[in-house]
């Protein structure tokens, strides 16, 4: 299913868009199955996917794991205000933390928006006390804990 949004012309044609859509739904789909759906040969599909990967359109293939099924029960979003001169240093440190699943520089007074997952509230409390609050330049932290997930998007869907 293709999106109603237009994509800038980067040499991606309608067949590439169909291939990307199929991969987004199931990244384990075989080249042969994709070929059947887009009416190309398996070799042509493989070449297109390799090209999309080399161009950086496809960043990586991954597996999405349900955190609750492996004992991770706390999902939290943080707005971290950082003194401007320490922003890159703090971001570089946080991006290496296993509990941090996403990290963005947002508009506003040097804000980092971060998502983290933890086995329980005590693990999150230790993360805050031992890994976030002590970072030089951190001015304030606002935390919101997820109650229920209605939709989660991984990557861009065409």
UniProtKB/TrEMBL annotation:
Asked if the record carries the keyword Iron-sulfur, the reply is: no
Q: Which GO terms describe its biological process?
A: response to amino acid
Q: Which InterPro entries does this chain map to?
A: ArsR-like_HTH, AsnC-type_HTH_dom, Dimeric_a/b-barrel, Tscrpt_reg_AsnC-like, Tscrpt_reg_AsnC/Lrp_C, WH-like_DNA-bd_sf, WH_DNA-bd_sf
KW Lipid metabolism (keyword) present: no
Q: Which residues cross the membrane?
A: none
**Which residues belong to any copy of the HTH asnC-type domain?**
12-73
Q: Name one GO cellular component term.
A: cytosol
Per its UniProt record, what Pfam families does this chain match?
AsnC_trans_reg, HTH_24
For this UniProt entry, the molecular function terms from Gene Ontology, in alphabetical order, are: sequence-specific DNA binding
PROSITE patterns noted in UniProt: HTH_ASNC_2 (PS50956)
Write the record's keywords in alphabetical order, separated by commas.
DNA-binding, Transcription, Transcription regulation
Classification via SMART domains: HTH_ASNC (SM00344)
Q: Which PANTHER family match?
A: LEUCINE-RESPONSIVE REGULATORY PROTEIN, TRANSCRIPTIONAL REGULATOR AZLB
Q: What is the recorded name of this protein?
A: AsnC family transcriptional regulator
What is the native source organism of this protein? Domibacillus iocasae
